[in-house]
Design a protein that fits this description.
Structural class: alpha+beta
Shape: globular
């Protein structure tokens, strides 16, 4: 039986931070791979782009851009098609932080890395995404969600550190440290009602500093702020409004201490099947602010395929 011929689509974002500074890789190599090349632009026509790719029965999509670009494109694919029927995706880093690419994509934007991901030597991984559905029945898909102070830290990182030319992991760590010190308005607690379907049902009520939720196996620079046990698809950390010793706990987690009980200082972590929020404060998904209605739920999708 003959192997299925690849129908390649190369999709890039010319406005992504790294691409805008250094230029996009995919336009340089699209012809040699006989790939359809599309710029996602300002995302105003992303719906048509995705419908065209699905109609053409593209079986491998290569995306070059940052985490927000990946989130926006994968969201549109999942709004149109079930996860089990989607093509293979390859993520080429092109943004400031590139969390998704670091975990399930390419480590470098090079012709050789792309060629390997398209060839017989590629490695296929299967990863679910977060599915966020609000009361208005809008759906969003991505890998890293946060509420409370972390979206405020994201704004600080973009507005203050990136504007000074500080990018990538250094900017995010700078934002986290600024938030962890508790100085200024970026760490204002916000009220939340949160139900967590974990080993049992956890009901959390009151002010919280923030939540962070992911399906990714790790985060940047070995700072992975999750220590919950269990084989459930969502990893969740919650910090109460009355927290203590946050900098000390962040440092401990950075050093890999995942067995310490931090509940006495207002920090909790679980693996979960689903989350139900009643909350109307700031929310961020893969670095992009979301406009969610007051109530929303988070689950994991079926795993989709990534090649590198």
């Amino acid at each position: 039986m003959q192997p299925q011929r690849q129908k390649l689509w190369f999709v890039y974002n010319a406005a992504s931070a790294k691409v805008a500074k250094k230029g996009a890789l995919l336009p340089q190599i699209a012809a040699q791979h006989n790939a359809v090349l599309r710029d996602v632009g300002d995302f105003s026509d992303v719906d048509t782009l995705v419908q065209d790719a699905l109609t053409a029965k593209a079986n491998h999509i290569v995306i070059e851009g940052g985490d927000g670009t990946v989130q926006g494109i994968l969201t549109e694919f999942l709004r149109h098609e079930k996860a089990r029927n989607l093509p293979i995706f390859t993520i080429v880093p092109g943004g400031n932080t590139n969390q998704v690419a670091r975990n399930i994509g390419l480590t470098a934007a090079t012709p050789q890395a792309v060629a390997k991901a398209l060839g017989e030597e590629k490695t296929i991984s299967h990863a679910p995404l977060l599915r966020i559905k609000d009361k208005a029945l809008r759906k969003y898909y991505g890998f890293l969600f946060s509420s409370g102070a972390l979206p405020q830290v994201t704004d600080y990182t973009k507005d203050k550190l990136h504007d000074r030319g500080i990018g990538g992991s250094l900017a995010v760590i700078g934002g986290i440290l600024k938030g962890a010190t508790g100085t200024g308005s970026i760490t204002t607690p916000t009220h939340i009602k949160l139900d967590i379907d974990a080993a049992g049902l956890e009901r959390l009520r009151g002010p919280h500093l923030g939540t962070i939720v992911t399906t990714l196996p790790g985060l940047m620079l070995k700072l992975d702020p999750f220590w919950g046990d269990g084989d459930r698809p969502l990893r969740v950390t919650y910090v109460a409004g009355e927290y203590q010793k946050l900098v000390r706990h962040v440092a401990s987690l950075w050093l890999g201490n995942k067995t310490k009980d931090r509940s006495q200082d207002g920090m909790y972590s679980w693996t979960a099947n689903s989350l139900k929020y009643r909350y109307k404060g700031p929310c961020v998904l893969d670095g992009e602010l979301l406009d969610l209605s007051k109530g929303f739920k988070i689950r994991a999708t079926r795993p989709i395929r990534f090649a590198k």
